[in-house]
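[Q] Does anyone have a clean structure-token version of this?
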Amino acid sequence: LIMNIGGLVRKEFGRLRSDKRTLILLFTIPLILIVIFGLTSGGGPTEFFRASIITKDDMDCFDDFPSNSSQYDDIFISVFQDNLTSFGLESYYNITDEVEYSNAFINCEKMLKNEIIDVFIVLTENFSETIENDTDTYLIYYIDASDSEALNSINISMLEPIAQFKLRIGKTANFSMIIPYLEFEVPFWESQVLNYALAFTIPLIIFGTTMNLSCLSIVSEGPLPRMLITPASKRSIILSKLIANSLIMILQAGEIFVATAIFGLYCLGSLFDLFLVFLAIGFCGITIGLFISSISKTDLQANQLYMVFFIITLLFSGQFVNVENLPPSMQAIIYSFPLGYGIPLTLDITLKGLPLDYALFSGILIISAVYILLAYVSYSFKKVEV
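[A] Here you go.
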């Protein structure tokens, strides 16, 4: 049995050697991207935002604030005019009636759409009055919600001007000034583009190229090579293809690991754990590729199914939406694909220095086991030409 599997493995290596296009893609695409990312400067997250302010503080307010005051809006604006680490002031509008407010709002909205500013802030009519009365003061600010990263960053960065404002007006009781910073930031002297992109691009590249490597493994096999190694059970054939493709995948993972180290891999966690994650993602890509090959009737159909699986996996990687805010049914779909586990694992190990999360790691292995089982079942019912 071992000799038979060994012969099948050698035959699979022969098939892979003849498929030079796939091998070139497998080893050159990761290397090219790593070189480009590694030689590109900058790349840290956005930390500085241009802002406009609309103050309605000069407008009369009544209700609980019979004495009109407007002294604090100028102080708030002056905070933005000074050297904040997070904000710069593009313009401000001192409003005295609703018509002026409508015009100012339209102008700010246009600047936001044209990316002249990143946020505009509205100070309400009772801004100064609420501060004088020590009641809750509200800031209304408008952000381009299409940029989810900027949305989160601005929410955190607003702590700085608010802190500076409280210091200037002397409202510091039970108050500690905190300048926000990025807890898991890549140091500026490291290759920031490579390391910020690594958690998403490297798992995606490994998964895509290894799935492409094995997606033609079964469907492209002709009857003559199979007849030269007989008898061979379908279980042995599947196992041999899994072994051969996995050995190639290990070489690719090693190449990626060495290349990222040469070009400035920043990893706070265990390098061995990171390598294990790369291997698990690659192994999962191979099993899905074998499943695609087992259900395909032609090479064209296999390539089409490969693209479908790749796009679906990309869309449900969890990087385009906040997984925690999704309903359980959508979370289940995302966690049925390997990148939902592989990307968080890579991020936790490299930037956060956390140990290997065995729950996430097991998720990748379980997905791999399911697909290799499906590949075997599908191949068992498949009519083989002889």
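[Q] Thanks! Anything notable?
[A] The domain at 49-169 is CATH 3.40.1710.10 (abc type-2 transporter like fold).
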